[in-house]
């Protein structure tokens, strides 16, 4: 499953790294592209969208 999420408080590459690590903790094989400039996170994963959103919120990056 692939989807794009908007993460308004992603400000820098360190934020993008934190987001990537949080999502790969849910699905180690997830493909994550986090772009601080556009605030978009593109995810290709076997995990549910709900699980991904919960992981982002837990990491301090709630989805808009």
Give your account of this protein's structure.
With 64 residues, the chain is an alpha+beta fold. It contains 2 helices and 3 strands, in the order βαββα. It has helices at residues 13-26, 49-58; strands at 2-6, 31-35, 40-44. It has a 3-stranded antiparallel beta sheet with strand order 1-3-2, covered by helices on one side. Pfam families: HMA. InterPro entries: HMA_dom (IPR006121), HMA_dom_sf (IPR036163). This is Heavy-metal-associated domain-containing protein.
The tally of domains stands at 1
**In one word, what is the shape?**
globular
Radius of gyration: 10 Å
* Overall SS class: alpha+beta
- Supply the CATH class: Alpha Beta
At the fold tier of CATH, the topology name is Alpha-Beta Plaits
Mean pLDDT: 96
CATH architecture grouping = 2-Layer Sandwich
Query: Could you estimate the helical fraction of the residues in percent?
Result: 25-40%
User: What is the terminal separation in angstroms?
Assistant: 20 Å
Number of strands: 3
- Biggest sheet character: 3 strands, antiparallel
Protein name: Heavy-metal-associated domain-containing protein
Pfam families: HMA
InterPro entries: HMA_dom, HMA_dom_sf
Write the layout of secondary structure elements.
Layout: E1 2-6, H1 13-26, E2 31-35, E3 40-44, H2 49-58
Antiparallel strand pairs: 1-3, 2-3
Helix pairs in contact: 1-2
What attributes does this structure have?
64 residues; single chain; 2 helices; Alpha-Beta Plaits; alpha+beta; three-stranded antiparallel beta sheet
């Amino acid at each position: 499953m692939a989807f794009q999420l908007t993460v308004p408080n992603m400000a820098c590459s360190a934020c993008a790294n934190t987001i990537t690590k949080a999502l790969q903790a849910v699905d180690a094989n997830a493909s994550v592209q986090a772009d601080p400039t556009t605030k978009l996170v593109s995810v290709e994963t076997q995990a549910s969208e709900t699980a991904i959103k919960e992981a982002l919120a837990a990491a301090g990056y709630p989805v808009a």
